[in-house]
Amino acid sequence: MAFEGLADRLQETMKKLTGKGKVSEQDVKEMTREVRLALLEADVNFKVVKDFVKRVKERAIGQEVMESLTPGQQVIKVVKEELTDLMGGEQSKIAVSDRSPTVIMMVGLQGAGKTTTTGKLANLLRKKHNRKPLLVAADIYRPAAINQLETIGRQLDIPVFAMGTDANPVDIANQAIAKAKEDHHDYVIIDTAGRLHVDENLMDELQQIKTNVKPDEVFLVVDAMTGQDAVNVAESFDEQLDISGVVLTKLDGDTRGGAALSIKAVTNKPIKFAGMGEKLDELEQFHPERMASRILGMGDVLSLIEKAQENVDEKKMKDLESKMRSASFTFDDFLDQMAQVKNMGPLEDLLGMIPGANKMKGLKNVQLDEKQLVHVEAIIQSMTKKERQDPNLMNASRKKRIAKGSGRPVSEVNRLLKQFDEMKKMMKQMTNSQSGKKGKKGKGLNFPFM
Amino acid sequence: MSFFKKLKDKFTTTEKEHEVSDKYKAGLSKTRDSFSSKINNLVARYRSVDEDFFEDLEEILIQADVGVMTVMDLVEELKTEVKRQNIKDSADLKEVISEKLVEIYAGDDDTSENVNIQDDDLSVILFVGVNGVGKTTTIGKMAYQLKQQGKKVVLVAGDTFRAGAIEQLEVWGERVGVDVIKQAAGSDPAAVIYDGVKAAKSRGADVLLCDTAGRLQNKVNLMNELSKVKRVIEREIPGAPHEVLLVLDATTGQNALSQAKTFSASTNVTGIVLTKLDGTAKGGIVLAIRKELKIPVKYVGLGEQMNDLEKFDANAFVYGLFADMIEQE
To answer: CA–CA separation, B40 vs B326, rounded Å?
Structure first.
């Protein structure tokens, strides 16, 4: 995909800026050009990008570069902070009205996913908040829209209020609320027809519904794949209906979802939920942090750095380095190393945080199995101290004993021994090539697993 | 002849020849008259060709969702030209911009925008796309058009997944007055499509329009399912499906390129239907798709009514792209 190219370029630029001290204007200029591209490629509206880049420039120039970061990384850190700021804090609360029922209105363009989201939201309200929602089929225009909501209602076993396609949506909404009161529903979710924000008649209709039912929440449902037009859509809906929040749908796709940023920037309304799949329980709280990383299109470099700093014992790292150099790396060291990696959190998360890791050969489709780590641990722990120090001792009967002790097949023991051997060789090569560069040590952090 | 004149000329001749639809006209009327003067203005605003000038040009194109990479490439090419010809005055750059823009918008003129419908035999058209782009609606509209042309049309409800999808197609079938082949919700789509092909054959239909469930292109299993559907059609009728139309929402941004790539890989897409063009979105990403993947746009959706489906008119489309953004200047 094109955006990987951009993320890579961002990385390249970042690598170039390896000086220390303060972030210079030149650093910022080079970085912001790439950031701008990354954001545009993610479909963030160009005006929003312009403002954003300006703010980043102002903030980043002259900043002290943190110990462990390069100026490039420092700029990215500012970018990410600004992005997260802009996206707002955690906000996935749903209003509760003083007088029951609480009324939620779902609005948006055609095909954004309003009806599905309506079902998901009802499901969430019932499951997580122990509420008793009523769904209202107010989309009288699209063929079988009512039918769709009714089917969803049946699947969830949540009642749906419908009056067919001949009724007026305003009447439907009014009567639905009366019905909800009668049946003691504490939430009413009105599914309205999809419409263009420039369709005056239909936007009028929404305003009428709103005036009549006085909803506690008006949720704008937006397709995460929306491009530059997201600002126009969000602005119009917000102007005419004063929306209270946004639900971003189809985020389980591979879009970068820059629309989220555009919408937040022009409406300043919180994005409350994210649609993560076609199943009716796949509605999640929206995480601004994650979204910021996703939009930027690079793995979460900074979280990785932060995690590495928190969890890796510097002294042990130095020991390890010298051991790697002298190739006296043993199974004990290996165990140590594994424990440190594990401290940093789930392996898959870690991999996801390394930019470019998803396209590294071989890594692409690797399903990292935490269990395998446990197995490796068991095998090593079944070795004697001597064996751990000197793998050359291994013979068939020792291997058999280790296999028995760890409960793993001999073939797995063999595999580990072979891998360990290869690893040692690789380390030797790596350290050799490093010292070959006129004694210049590798820049940045040494990750125990890389 | 300058680009603006070329484009304008091309547009006006098109108008005479094909009678560009009222909807296109309505969308463009505000700007058509002053089109060339405005693009002149754009260039005139910048006396010299500098970074700011290119940045503005980039933004203008990006705003229409023309792929970022496409825009960057274009600007790079322009920059090279500027250096090569030592252009300093923006007015002199006009001609160069013209040429490059024409290149993007004209694309390869040989790519057919006509839909491949057999005169004497059953034609099968498969509709694919992500969720909520308007596949079913497009099928309804196309069925109406084909019926108007005197074709016997059969629809097959291959979206067995989404709630209400079969019913939605049935409503369209009733409206237009064509048969809809279906099975119960949740059945195997390939089996339903197989039924559809059999029924279309035995009923002597001219065209079979196959609906499929919307799916995000990164769901591997669902994409495999789609390949299977296509294979079933291929097996039943040699040379079919005669068209695989990717339905694309005009409001979609850069992701449309990924959609086009992935759907092409699994179903060999032959054309695009660009829907929801009656809003404010420009659908400029189809330029990138055309440039990179050579897939032509064949139809555009301009509303929710039966007759709101138009043949794609490249000139009118590009005119719309540029006219609007120039108005903003």
So the answer is: 10
- On whether any CB of chain A is under 8 Å from the CB of B293, the answer is no
Binding site of B for GTP, by residue number, is 129-136, 211-215, 275-278
**Helix residue spans in chain B (DSSP H):** 3-18, 22-32, 35-45, 51-63, 68-84, 90-106, 135-148, 165-176, 189-202, 220-236, 255-267, 285-293, 314-328
- Neighboring chain B residues of A275 at a CB cutoff of 8 Å: none
Average pLDDT in the A71-96 region? 77
Nearest CB to B63: which of A2, A110, A228? A228
- Full DSSP string of A349-370: HHHHHSTTGGGSTTTTT----H
Q: Closest CB to A226: pick one of B163, B171, B252.
A: B252
Confidence of residue A68 (pLDDT cuts 50, 70, 90): low
CATH number given to A4-86: 1.20.120.140
Calculate the dihedral angle through the C-alpha atoms of B161, B167, B168, B171, rounding to the nearest 10 degrees: 160
Query: What pLDDT digit, counting tens, does each position of A269-315 carry?
Result: 999 999 999 899 999 888 887 787 778 765 555 455 455 555 555 56
Domains of chain B: 13-109+319-326 (1.20.120.140), 123-313 (3.40.50.300)
User: pLDDT band at residue A142, thresholds of 50, 70 and 90?
Assistant: very high
Q: What is the CATH number of domain A305-434?
A: 1.10.260.30
Q: How many Å lie between the alpha carbon of A206 and the closest alpha carbon of chain B?
A: 17
Residue A155: list chain B partners with CB under 8 A: 163
pLDDT, tens digit (0-9, with 9 covering 90-100), for B219-262: 999 999 999 999 999 999 998 899 999 999 999 999 999 999 99
Q: Are A275 and A247 in contact (CB under 8 A)?
A: yes
**Chain A neighbours among B 87-146 (CB < 8 Å)?**
130-134, 140
- pLDDT of res. B105: 59
pTM of the model: 0.75
- What integer pLDDT is reported at residue A208 of this predicted model? 96
Which pLDDT does position B22 carry in this prediction? 54
Please tell me which residue of chain B has the smallest CA distance to A38. Answer: B68
Domain residue ranges in chain A: 4-86, 102-289, 305-434
pLDDT at B61 over 70: yes
For residue A200, what pLDDT is reported? 92
CATH code of A102-289, in short, is 3.40.50.300
- Inter-chain contact B132–A113, Cβ cutoff 8 Å? yes
Q: Is A431 labeled as ligand-binding?
A: no
Confidence of residue A58 (pLDDT cuts 50, 70, 90): confident
Among positive and negative, which fits the CA dihedral A334, A336, A337, A339?
positive
Q: Answer whether A143 sits within 8 Å of B217, measured CB to CB.
A: no
In percent, the amount of chain A with pLDDT more than 70 equals 74
What is the b/e burial string over A96-129, where b = at least 16 CB atoms within 10 angstroms of the residue's CB? ebeebbbbbbbbbbbbbbbbbbbbbbbbbbbeee
Residues 19-78 of B with CB under 8 A from A: 59, 62-65, 67-69, 72
